Amino acid sequence: MIKVVAKGKLKPEVNVEEYLIQARELVAETRKEEGCITYALHQDINDPSIVTMLEEWVDVEALNQHNKAQHVKRIVPGLRSMRESTEVNIYKEVE
Length: 95
What we know:
About 40% of the residues lie in helices and about 35% in strands. It has three helices and four strands, in the order βαββααβ. A four-stranded antiparallel sheet has the order 2-3-1-4, with helices on one face. Helix 1 (about 15-30) runs antiparallel to helix 3. The termini are close together.
């Protein structure tokens, strides 16, 4: 299983609700993908401009296919343009 933690800080001028609307569409479409175990958007309790996507995939290939999906290519560039920073970490379980 692969886990992804994608944390972003929105630009000060960005309307947080507009970002969330687009991100929710990404979540809904991604959850339909084969190989997606969990895909959920989270917002920091103390700073609503910090958003984090927590993901679980069956394997690296499923994650790679996700990154090639049409809804990802359509939605993610717009989301990325609203963030001032992004950190993405991809994890595998240590046995």
